[in-house]
Known about the structure:
This protein is α+β, with helices and mostly antiparallel strands. The chain has helices at 27-45, 104-117, and strands spanning 6-10, 13-23, 49-56, 63-72, 83-87, 90-98, 126-130, 144-150. The protein has an eight-stranded antiparallel beta sheet with strand order 1-6-8-7-3-4-2-5, covered by helices on one side. A hairpin with a 6-residue loop joins strand 3 (49-56) and strand 4 (63-72). The protein is globular and about 45 Å long.
Amino acid sequence: MTPEPELVEVEPTPTAVIRGSVPVTEITSFYDRSFTEVAAVLGRQGVSPRGTFGRYLAPPADVIELEVGFVVDRAVEADGDVVASTLPGGRVARLIFHGAYDGLGEAWDGLMTWVGDQGLAPAGPVWEVYVTEPTPQTDPSTLRTDLFCPVA
């Protein structure tokens, strides 16, 4: 069962990402390529990864504007498609989702409904932190993804 959303304060966090405008049908391959390329850059620069995420820079459409990468211990130097970025600090609505990735759309709908029910409004790009790293042996029902929506 997915816990109820909550309001929390988060600190700005440095990230290393690849940005893209990606057709929905290519999103999985973009994630895979991005994680591989960013991890290689982190290794070359001696930067420690602290988790993976995807940040959606515009409302969902047939083409998704996003950045995908790792939370890191310090800023990276640009290298190829990999650039430094930041997850913003401030007040966010957070939902901890347990389950397969194909349930994320419904989880996001629930979080956005909850935000409105609280008399709040989204205040910037949203992001997902992939707490559980999937493997071919992973039971999808055991995956944990934390959803974040800045609010005003």
